[in-house]
Design goal:
The protein has 321 residues and is an alpha/beta fold. The chain folds into 2 domains: 3-245, Alpha-Beta Barrel (TIM Barrel), CATH 3.20.20; 254-320. The chain is built from 13 helices and 13 strands. The protein has helices at 25-33, 54-57, 78-90, 105-108, 120-133, 153-162, 186-194, 208-218, 235-245, 254-272, 274-289, 295-304, 308-320, and strands spanning 3-5, 8-10, 14-16, 38-39, 43-45, 70-74, 95-100, 138-143, 145-147, 150-151, 167-171, 199-202, 222-225. It has a 9-stranded parallel β-sheet with strand order 4-3-13-12-11-8-7-6-5. The radius of gyration is 19 Å and the shape is globular.
């Protein structure tokens, strides 16, 4: 159950995935409180001239996050990524994570994210530039390759090890797969057998049984949970208990759900302001509603409300009744 990244021993081997527009400091804090051992921040462009926006400013290292604080950088230019890494470390980042896993079209169109897997020489240059630029651990998240005919995760992982990276997370799909079909874990297992770095497995881990299967099958040192945590931050506590002693943890009752959701909404309003906060809150309520009896009733009414006060009042009324 232990996992260590560089000099940082983590309380367990359960990691919250970075998801743009979702895993902000508010959601990360909730997942930490509910059993996550580590969380990677949302991806931040390495183009520093874009950092003046409100959106980018929420993705810097948050000094209130539990240590180690991680920032994920997205880019294609080795020196640009190196400079961005230096600046984020100066602002409090303790781990720099590199995004070679995002399959989004707007990212891959500029040969960033998982598209970089098709350019191993550029990847090696990026690894070298960033590790030389900062004195904190550098990690990377990758996919298994660009498409099913070109799976090169082992090659990329070996480059990471040669250039001194501290850990690798692998999503069990190729760039071309996006999020379709089922995650394949054979490539993750091959990477684990090929390098000595800590390996974190990612993809389709949505319950305790799957978490145990992935760890045992791939021999990975940890697992990263993304979509399985949406509307369900309690999944980390449930998996931790199951892996530790096969003890089942009951789902939270209505009162516990209300307190967590209310805390989440209050944090969103504070972080983004009321107008943007209430819009983002609608997205999260849609995910919470999937795990709540009569959740459709909660979601439909909630999405029609136009103020934070109306949202919080309806949430309270829904759970009271």
């Amino acid at each position: 159950m232990s996992l260590q990244i560089g000099p940082y021993p983590l309380p367990n081997n359960l990691v919250l995935a970075p998801m743009a527009g979702i895993t902000d400091s508010v959601f990360r804090r909730l997942c930490y409180q509910n059993g996550a051992g580590y969380a990677v921040g949302e991806m931040l462009s390495a183009q520093t001239h874009l950092w003046d926006s409100k959106k980018s400013s929420t993705r810097f290292a948050n000094l209130e996050d539990p240590e180690p604080r991680s920032v994920q950088l997205l880019g294609i230019d080795p020196q640009e990524l190196a400079q961005a890494a230096r600046l984020q470390v100066e602002q409090g980042a303790q781990i720099i994570d590199l995004n070679l896993g995002c399959p989004a079209k707007k990212v891959c169109n500029i040969a960033a994210g998982s598209a970089l897997l098709g350019y191993p020489e550029r990847v090696e240059q990026i690894f070298k530039a960033v590790t030389e630029a900062v004195d904190v651990p550098v990690t990377v998240k990758i996919r298994t390759g660009t498409d099913p005919l070109n799976r090169n995760a082992v090659q990329i992982a070996q480059l990471a090890e040669q250039q001194g990276l501290a850990a690798i997370t692998i999503h069990g799909r190729t760039r071309a797969d996006k999020f379709l079909g089922q995650a394949e874990y054979d490539s993750i297992k091959r990477v684990k057998q090929a390098v000595s770095l800590p390996i974190i497995a990612n993809g389709d881990i949505c319950d305790v049984e799957q978490a145990q299967f992935v760890l045992e099958y791939t021999l990975a040192d940890g697992i990263m949970i993304g979509r399985g945590a949406l509307g369900n931050p309690w999944i980390f506590k449930q998996i931790e208990a199951y892996l530790s002693n096969k003890q089942a943890v009951s789902p939270p009752d209505a009162s516990q759900r209300y307190q967590v959701i209310r805390t989440h909404l209050d944090g969103l309003y504070q972080l983004y302001g009321e107008l943007q906060g209430l819009r983002i809150a609608r997205k999260h309520i849609g995910w919470y509603a999937q795990h709540i009896e009569q959740g459709d009733t909660l979601r439909r009414r909630f999405n029609s409300l136009q103020s934070a006060d109306e949202q919080t009042l309806w949430l309270q009324q829904f759970f009271e009744t």
